[in-house]
Amino acid sequence: MYQSQLLELRQRLLYAEKENKKRSHELSSALDEIKHVVAKRMNSTTNHTDDTKWKELNLTRKLPVHFTNMYYYLPHLREYEDAIFPNVIFGQQRTGVSLVMGIPTVKREKHHYLINTLHSLLYELSEEQKNDCVIIIFVAEVNAEYVNSVAESVKTSFPREIQSGVLEVISPPASYYPDLSNLKKTFGDSEDRVRWRTKQNLDYSFLMLYAQPKGTFYLQLEDDIIAKPDYIQSIENFAAKQSQEWMILEFSQLGFIGKLFKSEDLPLIVEFFLMFYKDKPIDWLIDHLLWVKVCNPEKDAIHCEKEKAKLRIRAKPSLFQHVGIYSSLAGKIQNLKDKDFGKNVLHKTHNNPPAKVDTSLRTYQQYTLEKVYKGKDCFWASAPVAGDYISFTFLNPLKVEKYFFRSGNMEHPGDKLFNTTVEVLPADEMLRKELVDNGSKFNYPATKDGYLKIGAFENGIAGGSINQSIGKIQAIRLLVNSDSPVWAILSEVFIKTSEN
């Protein structure tokens, strides 16, 4: 009985896949024309440049699932004209990118992780990578006040990324969700858990449909994770080297975290989710979809698993780690950790010249300034106030060519230095006196104690070249100019001289 039903379901899916391809072929030319017009209008915020390795994959972009299918699985939508269209709170309509990342987020009872997750994802992205991706935050709530509070929090923390279009914040219309009060309890789950997982399935479906036309690949993430610093490059490399047809590339072993799909496959995937959104959790549905596509009912489970493994390919080590403790399901505590993630490197090592280090900041535990300077660990201190400093005084005056300082790290990306200047003390005492008297030199403003202000921290980073006309330098100082609401981590110090 079950075998015949599954075979019938398989035929329905194959028919749906065929129909989606047919619609896509008929309307692709119209879509291309629309994209061309949109691209011209949004030239400043739209990026159509694919990295060479993404191009090598030769994937085409297709249209989203025909929306009338949603009315079949969610019949209540027929009563609401705009129920399938998102509220775009912030977004620049960026399309044509290589990678679209989707992050659903909901109101939690205790701790919120979203901002730290975004810090981690954006932490070491190059400008080129930022221009070729979109991160969509889907606030899966219908309370307008809460949705707007999340959006404002994201905008306050990442104004540049909102402005450029790297980050988008959307929410569903209230009419999108059906009545979830009388769901059938299954698998021994409580009524609350069944309602939670059912809504979660609808959330993923809505987010995937919105993301589908924006790029070549779609990466499913959660709002309580941290990422490896090079995660985009690693994903790109792994996808490019696949020689066989695949449906899912997995970059985490946990749940629905770090799952990469081809955008062209999302219509079929979403349609399958919507068929069974009331019945099972999302990770089970994905497994069942693979079963329907490749498993032969007349063969054993071992054969089935081998066939599924051809479509669902696991990358190691994992690129994403789950850090949340308090689940979005009220009262649920989850200490899930991906054992294949390993430890993040929280500092970078450089061969810096001999120097005496000093700071007015209160050091936290063993994370001393000397350790970060020598590349042994990061420096961590309680919240700086105006006038606090970090200084590096060279044992012998040096010709310094370049400098680089990075604050925050992957586990605490928000613990950055804000409104902090980089200053150098010339070794020439006559020059120092001149600076005090005149107030500037070499197009650098001077301080009252003879330092030249050569740079400042921006988004947690300060770096640049030093005008060699200054001559030898006695010391470099980081000066905090205003009180900070957060602690500060210095995770990288690099002082380049002609000798190192």
Architecture overview:
With 500 residues, the chain is of the alpha+beta class. 33% of the residues lie in helices and 22% in strands. The strands form five sheets. The protein has an eight-stranded mixed sheet with strand order 1-4-3-2-5-8-7-9, sandwiched between helices. A five-stranded antiparallel sheet has the order 11-13-20-15-18. A four-stranded antiparallel sheet has the order 12-21-14-19. The longest helix has 40 residues, at 2-41. The relative contact order is 0.10. The model is unreliable at 23-51, 58-65 and 326-333 (pLDDT under 50).
Give me the secondary-structure topology.
Layout: H1 2-41, H2 52-56, H3 68-73, E1 87-90, E2 97-105, H4 114-122, H5 127-131, E3 133-139, H6 144-157, H7 159-164, E4 167-171, H8 191-211, E5 215-220, E6 225-227, H9 231-240, E7 248-250, E8 259-262, H10 266-275, H11 282-294, H12 301-311, E9 312-314, E10 320-322, E11 355-359, H13 369-373, E12 379-381, E13 389-398, E14 400-407, E15 420-426, H14 429-438, E16 440-441, E17 444-445, E18 452-456, E19 461-465, E20 473-480, E21 488-497
Parallel strand pairs: 2-3, 2-5, 3-4, 7-9
Antiparallel strand pairs: 1-4, 5-8, 6-10, 7-8, 11-13, 12-21, 13-20, 14-19, 14-21, 15-18, 15-20, 16-17
Helix pairs in contact: 8-10, 11-12
User: What's the quaternary structure here?
Assistant: single chain
Low-confidence regions: 23-51, 58-65, 326-333
Q: What proportion of the residues form beta strands (DSSP E)?
A: 15-25%
**Average pLDDT figure:** 83
The computed structural class is alpha+beta
Percent of residues in helical segments? 25-40%
Largest sheet: 8 strands, mixed
The strand order across the widest sheet is 1-4-3-2-5-8-7-9
Radius of gyration: 27 Å
